[in-house]
Recover the amino acids of this structure.
């Protein structure tokens, strides 16, 4: 995995990119779950969302190590 | 004289925008001229402290200077001593921010701003200094100088250039409040308008009173307002506090009399007369107060040994009507005095609240502590991220977490405020990017720079001036001027700009996430706590402990009531109607009256009353939902029976009225006293 990405000559940590991607995925996912009424089963919504975010981020980083490097 | 005034008021937002920009540029120029290391802080400070009203700006300014000074001193003490152990230093700073936030949430006044500031100033000065602790003293001093400079210019310009005092704003609010209150009184007296509407109006008045209170908190710092006006407004506010429970009592007694139109035919013309008297505006057209008072006294029944429940309620109603007339006539004369700018101490007031100035406020220790703990957790989470990743510019993350948590801690759902602040900051980052890399490189001297900044910052000032957008304007103005980092020489490089911006947004995001995790309680929980503490206060009052001052008690309960009103949507039905009828407040005021009167009664009556109060105190302490124990009703009736047998006189009358009020407040649906009790007590009306 590359640790830094080159954007117009500026080196940005690649983790930042995965943060943004994971956040976008999370927004889509929570909107979908909200629509089907999944959150009625969740005790602490914020905690649940944060955990899903960590899972998504971890998954993205793992995949990027596997396939992009 | 009329024209320029109305022009100033109509275009107040534009004038405010120009004034603020002017003050900001003066502060920036002065800071550049003094060769301070970060002149942009002075400019940002102007945008943070400026408020459309002069008193508000200067009260914010006084506490801001004090808070910054305390914060700077704390940073100078903490950083050099703990710099060898960054984890410990972070912990110390986070705890300091938490402590200050806790204190500021308890105070809820202009002073609270000072506490909050001394908290996050430590974060602002301390975190950047961790990498070079040797310079901490210079850094703290420079930051203090820059911030003071900004405050001084903001206050100076707001006071010197077309000042707008808080006093007319407060006076205007008070005037329209009193007008609404008179209209409500008319509805109550004449029984017009449906109950739902009356309730809604009453709630609106209660929450308006709290807002006026917050606005009036700035009055004593207003350099423009005269001392007479300020004093007059304080007096009116005290009268306003008593007006709402009075009206609620009158409505309740009328309901208690039942078919009073048939049983007491003399009452209707009297009510009509009082209603007309209340709503007639001109001084000369109104009939003299003494005539109205006389008419009320004439109707008063003689309460003897076998006075019926009906008669007791009627006597009670008439006393409350008399109080209403007194309070209302006082409000009229005070309004008159304020408009003329005369000394309010010379007005003879018919209704004198006892004791000194009423400044009782509701405090919630647990909630304050919990919010403070949330801020500490958010700062520590950012510190872990910063130290663990070895990210050099990461120090602004904990800094922003401290600022974000402090700013929004007082809200019911701070996470929402923090995240919207974060999104507006993102916009600020984009604006700053445009300025730094597209506009400023072409600028050569300071005049052109000011011209280039003008359109954006004038717009921010305009946004601040309008109440609906003032939050957005503040977020944009403060963040843009901070991130722009204007210095004597152009020194922008893209790398550090990106780094700072990311750290900035990370801090905000972290604050939002941690707050969201910690504050799963919302308005509902807070409302329930408010009700619970109100019941406890009642229990304390009934247990013959606590303060004895009627107006102070009413002030505290009304303050809570206003806080409850803001959260009315989150409450259950029983709680909602308790709030709307001010029943807790009324019962409490009656208990205080009763406790005063009972000392002059015969020992056996006194014992009966004390027994009743003790039973009530126990019931109030364990109160969870609507129902009150039926045993209490029996004790109330027993006390009432003993009191009726007392020899005639003022103590007996006061006690009778107190007990009646308590009985009506707690058991509005119970059968009238003296008849066979059938209905069980429920706290509804």
């Amino acid at each position: 995995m590359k640790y830094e990405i080159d954007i117009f000559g500026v080196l940005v940590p690649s983790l930042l990119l995965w943060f943004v991607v994971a956040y976008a995925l999370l927004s889509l996912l929570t909107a979908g779950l909200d629509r089907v009424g999944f959150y009625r089963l969740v005790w602490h919504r914020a905690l649940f969302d944060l955990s899903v975010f960590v899972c998504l981020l971890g998954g993205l980083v793992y995949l990027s190590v596997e396939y992009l490097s | 004289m009329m024209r320029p005034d109305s022009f100033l008021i109509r275009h107040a937002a534009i004038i405010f925008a120009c004034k603020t920009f002017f003050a900001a540029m003066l502060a920036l120029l002065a800071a550049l001229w003094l060769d301070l290391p970060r002149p942009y802080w002075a400019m940002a400070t102007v945008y943070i402290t400026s408020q459309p009203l002069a008193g508000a700006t200067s009260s914010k300014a006084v506490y801001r200077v004090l808070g910054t000074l305390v914060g700077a001193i704390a940073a100078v003490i903490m950083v050099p001593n703990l710099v060898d152990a960054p984890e410990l230093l972070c912990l110390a700073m986070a705890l300091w921010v938490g402590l200050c936030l806790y204190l500021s949430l308890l105070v809820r006044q202009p002073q609270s701003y000072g506490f909050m500031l001394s908290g996050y100033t430590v974060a602002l000065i301390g975190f950047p200094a961790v990498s070079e602790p040797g310079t901490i003293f210079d850094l703290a001093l420079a930051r203090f100088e820059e911030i003071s400079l900004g405050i001084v210019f903001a206050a100076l310009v707001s006071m010197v250039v077309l000042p707008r005092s808080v006093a007319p704003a407060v006076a205007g609010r008070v005037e329209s409040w009193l007008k609404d209150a008179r209209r409500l009184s008319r509805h109550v007296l004449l029984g017009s308008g449906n109950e739902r509407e009356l309730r809604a109006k009453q709630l609106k008045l209660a929450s308006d009173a709290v807002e006026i209170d917050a606005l009036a908190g700035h009055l004593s710092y207003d350099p423009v307002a005269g001392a007479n006006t300020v004093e007059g407004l304080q007096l009116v506010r005290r009268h306003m506090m008593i007006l709402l429970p009075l009206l609620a009592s009158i409505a309740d007694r009328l309901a208690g009399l039942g078919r009073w139109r048939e049983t007491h035919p003399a009452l209707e013309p009297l009510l009509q007369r009082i209603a007309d008297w209340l709503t007639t505006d001109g001084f000369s057209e109104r009939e003299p107060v003494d005539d109205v008072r006389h008419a009320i006294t004439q109707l008063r029944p003689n309460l003897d040994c076998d006075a019926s429940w009906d008669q007791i309620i009627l006597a009670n109603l008439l006393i409350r009507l008399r109080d209403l007339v007194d309070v209302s006539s006082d409000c009229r004369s005070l309004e008159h005095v304020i408009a003329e700018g005369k000394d309010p101490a010379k007005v003879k007031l018919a209704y004198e609240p006892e004791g000194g100035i009423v400044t009782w406020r509701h405090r919630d220790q647990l909630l304050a502590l919990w919010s403070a703990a949330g801020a500490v957790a958010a700062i520590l989470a950012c510190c872990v991220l910063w130290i663990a990743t070895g990210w050099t510019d990461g120090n602004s993350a904990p800094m922003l977490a401290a600022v974000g948590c402090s700013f929004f801690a007082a809200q019911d759902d701070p996470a929402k405020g923090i995240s919207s602040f974060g999104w507006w900051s993102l916009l600020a980052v984009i604006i700053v990017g445009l300025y730094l890399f597209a506009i400023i490189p072409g600028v050569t001297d300071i005049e052109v720079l000011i011209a280039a900044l003008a359109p954006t910052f004038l717009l921010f000032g305009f946004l601040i001036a309008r109440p609906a957008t003032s939050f957005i304007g503040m977020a944009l103005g403060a963040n843009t001027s901070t991130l722009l980092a204007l210095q004597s020489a152009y020194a922008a490089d893209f790398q550090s700009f990106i780094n700072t911006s990311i750290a900035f947004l990370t801090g905000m995001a972290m604050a939002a996430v941690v707050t969201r995790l910690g504050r799963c309680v919302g308005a509902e929980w807070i409302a329930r706590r408010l009700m619970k503490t109100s019941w406890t206060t009642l229990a304390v009052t009934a247990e013959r402990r606590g303060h004895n001052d009627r107006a102070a008690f009413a002030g505290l309960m009304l303050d809570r009531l206003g806080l409850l009103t803001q959260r009315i949507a989150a409450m259950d039905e029983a709680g909602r109607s308790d709030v709307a009828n001010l029943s807790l407040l009324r019962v409490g005021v009656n208990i205080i009256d009763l406790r005063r009167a009972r000392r002059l009664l015969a020992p056996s009556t006194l014992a009966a009353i004390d027994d009743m109060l003790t039973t009530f105190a126990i019931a109030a302490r364990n109160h969870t939902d609507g129902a009150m124990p039926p045993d209490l009703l029996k004790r109330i009736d027993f006390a009432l029976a003993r009191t009726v047998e007392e020899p005639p006189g003022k103590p007996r009358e006061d006690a009778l009225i107190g007990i009646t009020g308590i009985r009506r407040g707690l058991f509005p649906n119970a059968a009238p006293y003296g008849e066979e009790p059938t209905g069980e007590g429920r706290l509804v009306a």
